[in-house]
Write a structure and sequence with these properties.
The protein is built from three helices and 22 strands. A four-stranded antiparallel sheet has the order 1-22-21-20, with no helix packed on it. It has a four-stranded antiparallel sheet with strand order 2-3-4-5, with no helix packed on it. The protein has a four-stranded antiparallel sheet with strand order 8-9-10-11, with no helix packed on it. The longest helix has 24 residues. The N and C termini lie far apart (93 Å).
Length: 378
C-alpha cells in the first residue's frame, strides 16, 4: 500500500511539473517577418512585381533617357525586367510599348502626353485575366496619364491588351482603351487588386487626396462602378494597395500617409475591411507618444524604409509593401526599390501601443519629406 501511495505521489509531482512547464512555455513570441529585399541598379520605379511561369517580373516607369517630372523632357516609357529570384540579378529593362505610339483618345503620341507636358505617365500595373472574367489568361496593362485630367478633366487612366506579361502592349491587333470610370474618375496613383472569382478592384487616389475604389468590368479593361469614395475617411493620402491576410481573412489596405511626390521617409498607413468592397476602417489617430509619426496608431512604418509606399505585391503567398526609395529629385533614375514584408498581427487594445504589424527591419531612421508636390495634382 505504501509503495502504491508513493507511486501516486511521484506521478502527481511529475504531472504538476509537466503542467507548470507547459504553462510556462505557452506564451510564444510573434513570428518574425521574412527578410525584406532591396532592388538597386534597375531603372524601374512606381511599379510592381509579379510571378509568371516561374519568373519574377519587375515593372516600372523609366527615367534613364532624361525624363524629369514637371518639365518638358523625353518620356522613357514603361519597362519590365526579369529574374529567377526577387533578389536578382535582374535583366536590363525592355519597353512595354513605344513612347512614339499614339493614344487613341488624344490622337497624340505618348511623348506629347507624358513628356512634353511634364506631367508624366506612371503606375504601370499588369494583371492577368485568370480565375475571373473570361478566364483566358490574357494580360492587361493599366497606367495613368495625369495630363488627360489636367487638360480635359477626363480620368487619367488607360488599359492596354498585351501579347504576354513582357509585352508588347497595345499596337496592332491589341486594344488600347480609354476606360469609362464611375468612381475612380480623377488622376492619381492607383493599384489593381485581384479578387477572383470576381473582377479586380481599382483602388485610386482622387484629386483631393482622398481614396476611392471601383470594380472593373469582366473584361478587366474599364470600370463597372459600384465602388466607394473617401475610403476610411482618409485625407492627404495617396498610392493605395491591398491584400488579403491569409491567417485572418482580413483585407489590408496600405497607402502613403501623407501624400508627397518623391518623398524620402514618408510614413505608410493602413486600414482594414472584411471584404475588398469595404467599408474600410483606419485606426484612430491617437496615442502617438510610443514613437509613431503624427498619424499615430494607423502607421505601419514611420519612415517607409526611407522611401514612400507605392502598392502591395504578393510573392509566393507573402505580401510585401512596394516602396520607392526616392532621391527627392525630378529625375529618379538611380532610385532603388524596397520590398518590405507585411505581417499582420491584429489590433491592440485602445490605449496601448499599436503593434498590428511585425516591425519593419529595413533600418531606416525617422526622416522628413523633401520631394516636390503631389504627382497627380491638376
Amino acid at each position: 500500500m505504501t509503495r502504491f501511495v508513493r507511486a501516486l505521489v511521484v506521478c502527481a509531482v511529475l504531472a504538476a511539473g509537466l503542467v507548470a512547464t507547459t504553462a510556462a512555455a505557452a506564451p510564444t513570441a510573434p513570428a518574425a517577418a521574412p527578410e525584406g529585399i532591396t532592388i538597386s541598379g534597375v531603372d524601374l520605379h512606381d511599379g510592381m512585381v509579379l510571378q509568371a511561369d516561374g519568373v519574377y517580373l519587375l515593372y516600372g516607369t523609366m527615367y534613364g533617357c532624361g525624363f524629369a517630372w514637371g518639365v518638358a523632357s523625353p518620356w522613357c516609357g514603361f519597362g519590365v525586367a526579369q529574374a529567377t529570384s526577387p533578389s536578382g540579378p535582374w535583366s536590363a529593362p525592355t519597353r512595354l510599348f513605344s513612347p512614339t505610339s499614339v493614344s487613341p483618345f488624344r490622337g497624340a503620341v505618348w511623348q506629347t502626353i507624358c513628356g512634353d507636358s511634364g506631367a508624366g505617365c506612371f503606375n504601370p500595373r499588369m494583371v492577368q485575366r485568370t480565375g475571373w472574367g473570361a478566364d483566358d489568361g490574357a494580360w492587361i496593362l493599366w497606367f495613368n496619364a495625369p495630363d488627360d485630367f489636367n487638360r480635359l478633366r477626363a480620368n487619367a487612366y488607360y488599359s492596354m491588351e498585351c501579347a504576354g506579361p513582357t509585352g508588347p502592349c497595345g499596337g496592332s491587333g491589341r486594344a488600347t482603351t480609354k476606360p469609362s470610370m464611375y468612381d475612380c474618375t480623377d488622376n492619381g496613383d492607383f493599384s489593381i487588386v485581384v479578387d477572383a472569382p470576381r473582377p479586380p478592384v481599382m483602388l485610386c487616389t482622387m484629386a483631393d487626396q482622398t481614396l476611392a475604389s471601383e470594380r472593373l468590368t469582366p473584361a478587366g479593361t474599364a470600370g463597372a462602378g459600384g465602388g466607394a469614395r473617401r475610403l476610411a475617411g482618409l485625407t492627404n493620402t495617396e498610392a493605395p494597395g491591398a491584400y488579403r491576410d491569409p491567417s485572418t481573412g482580413t483585407w489590408i489596405m496600405t497607402y502613403s500617409d501623407p501624400h508627397c511626390g518623391y518623398c524620402a521617409g514618408a510614413p505608410t498607413g493602413y486600414a482594414t475591411a472584411s471584404s475588398l468592397a469595404g467599408p474600410w476602417t483606419a485606426p484612430p489617430n491617437t496615442n502617438p507618444d510610443w514613437g509613431a509619426p503624427p498619424a499615430g496608431r494607423r502607421a505601419v512604418s514611420a519612415t517607409s524604409c526611407g522611401g514612400q509606399a507605392r502598392t502591395v505585391v504578393t510573392l509566393s503567398g507573402q505580401a510585401y509593401q512596394f516602396i520607392d526609395l526616392w532621391l527627392g529629385t525630378r529625375n529618379e533614375t538611380a532610385a532603388a526599390v524596397r520590398l518590405e514584408p507585411l505581417v499582420y498581427r491584429g489590433e491592440s487594445p485602445p490605449g496601448s501601443p499599436l503593434q498590428a504589424f511585425a516591425p519593419w527591419r529595413c533600418g531606416a531612421t525617422e526622416g522628413g519629406p523633401h520631394g516636390s508636390p503631389h504627382r497627380g495634382r491638376a
